[in-house]
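Notes, p. 3: input format for complexes.
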Amino acid sequence: MQITEIYKSIQGESTHAGLPCVFVRLTGCNLRCAWCDSEYTFSGGHRMTPEEVIEEVEHLSPGGLVEITGGEPMLQERELVPVMQRLLDDGYTVLLETSGERPLARVPKGVVKIVDVKCPNSGEGDSFDMENLEALDSGDEVRFVLSDRADYEFARDFVARHGLAHKVNAVLFSPAFSKEAGGARDTSHCLLDPRELAEWMLADHVPARLSLQMHKFIWDPAMKGV
Ligand code: SF4
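Output follows (226 residues plus iron/sulfur cluster):
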């Protein structure tokens, strides 16, 4: 497997936010979202066997929460699926963070899928694989990263059209964070003001959860490995 980093930190953006978590960050992505904060994963990394990945997770935490992320982890589906199954079998709670562009039907049952639906201003607005709606189950989460009103309206309408609130555990509306926010740790660096977003959500009775990227407020937003 091609791995950028494996580290322990605080889970920052889901219903598991705030919990200690081991992150397995896989190298490579086939999308290029305008506000991507993980461009360092597009290349490089190092080879590890699936066994070495599992050993490193066990070394960092003997149990608890593991998040598989990237990049786009499902580009390495062949090796990744057995790793996720093994972690589940060993008693870990396994989160898979994915762009929604890759098919998710073969993700092992029990893995919590945190699936993005890319909005228009990401530059990847048509990338979501609509067949993935069938792969979602009641433990999963769907996330929209929003940078303006047009993104918000797209997300609001998508949630309503597909009845997402009844399909998954949580729908997350998350303001995008500026890529130029190095050092700063306040909401002025969100591309969409969270207060404005909250007001829109309340006015429209959107059945979604406002989600701020907790790690961006704890550490320097440009920091890796957190
Ligand atoms: S899918 Fe994720 S890693 Fe890939 S470009 Fe978009 S934000 Fe970055």
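The two ends are 21 Å apart (CA to CA).
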